[in-house]
Amino acid sequence: MRSGQGGTDDGVRLGAAELGAPLGERATLVQFSSAFCQPCRATRRVLAEVVRMVDGVAHLEIDAEARLDLVRGLGVVRTPTVLVLDAGGRVVRRAAGQPRTADVIAALGAVI
């Protein structure tokens, strides 16, 4: 995924308790959004399209303002930020800004 803030978060794991929803069977796309963020709406559409195309992948959208604890703990500095989690909830990729469908699929390919 292209990224203004890229890379991995070595050793960071997230689960249903932290995210408020179950993880995907094979991978999870966690999107941090804010209410007035136009790129967040476009990102939501891109990630929903990927979830329809790739079995076992879940998309969870988190309101950054409502979950400041998680935002601060993960070092999220802008919205949208997307984290790619493997089946065990380990953060394997992170990108800030609106992703392209092909980049999301490529990031998932490294996970599943």
TrEMBL record:
Pfam families: Thioredoxin. InterPro entries: Thioredoxin-like_sf (IPR036249), Thioredoxin_domain (IPR013766). Residues 26-103 form the Thioredoxin domain. It comes from the Bacteria. Coiled coil: none annotated. Transmembrane segments: none annotated. This is Thioredoxin family protein. It comes from Streptomyces cuspidosporus.
